[in-house]
Amino acid sequence: MDKTALLVLDVQVCHIEGLKSALDTTAYLSSLSQTIVAARAAGVPVIQVTVSFRDSYADASPRNISGARVRAADAYKESDPAVALHTAMSFVAETDIRVTKRRVSAFHGTDLEVVLKSLGVGKIVIAGVATSGAVLSTVRQAADMDYEIVVLEDLCADSKRDVHEVLVGQLFPKQGTVMSSQEWTAQIAMGGK
């Protein structure tokens, strides 16, 4: 039986600060923290994925629209404290696995697939920001890589609520299972993954 892993995408200072006008970030971070604690208690590996670029931007191509925007804004540099995990994630355990990405998807150009295969993971549970960015790209790529996918709808967030609703209501169910964090934590507490 394949193992399950919880992927927590881009819960960084800069992203959470950017969501404050669209989301109760305190409640979001509290729910996310509770889910991470429940995952650890159930023996589910937690993988914290963040995005940043070398200070020289050698890995942010100007041909890539996102890369060009990052360069123009002088943002997302590895040395910038804004790219750190949000302070609410300061309880990250030594057992949590850290992955740094340079693109939107958690898979592209990272060692995430090697980590998942090494752990025997065939099912990934996804939480994080933004629903229309890292979550969408990671879900689509994971589906193409034949992973079983669960998206925790209440633990994915986007500055555009209507876009979030379309993705969790219409697109993600075509790639995997969409459920609440409460449903998933109840499931793993009873021995399911």
Any key phrases for this structure?
Rossmann fold; 193 residues; 6-stranded parallel sheet
If you had to describe this structure to a student in words, what would you say it looks like?
This protein is an alpha/beta fold and 193 residues long. The protein has one domain (3-189): Rossmann fold (3-Layer(aba) Sandwich). It is built from 7 helices and 6 strands, in the order βααβαβαβαβαβα. Strands 3-2-1-4-5-6 form a 6-stranded parallel beta sheet, sandwiched between helices. Helix 5 links the parallel strand 4 and strand 5. The chain is globular, with a radius of gyration of 16 Å. The mean pLDDT is 94.
Shape, please? Answer: globular
Would you tell me which CATH topology applies?
Rossmann fold
Counted up, domains total 1
Secondary structure class reads alpha/beta
List the secondary-structure elements in sequence, H or E.
Answer: EHHEHEHEHEHEH
Low-confidence stretches: none
CATH homology-level superfamily: Isochorismatase-like
Biggest β-sheet description: 6 strands, parallel
Q: State Rg.
A: 16 Å
Lateral arrangement of strands in the main beta sheet: 3-2-1-4-5-6
- Distance from N terminus to C terminus (CA atoms, Å) equals 10 Å
Organism: Anthostomella pinea
Protein name: Uu.00g046760.m01.CDS01
GO molecular function: hydrolase activity
Domain Isochorismatase-like: 4-183
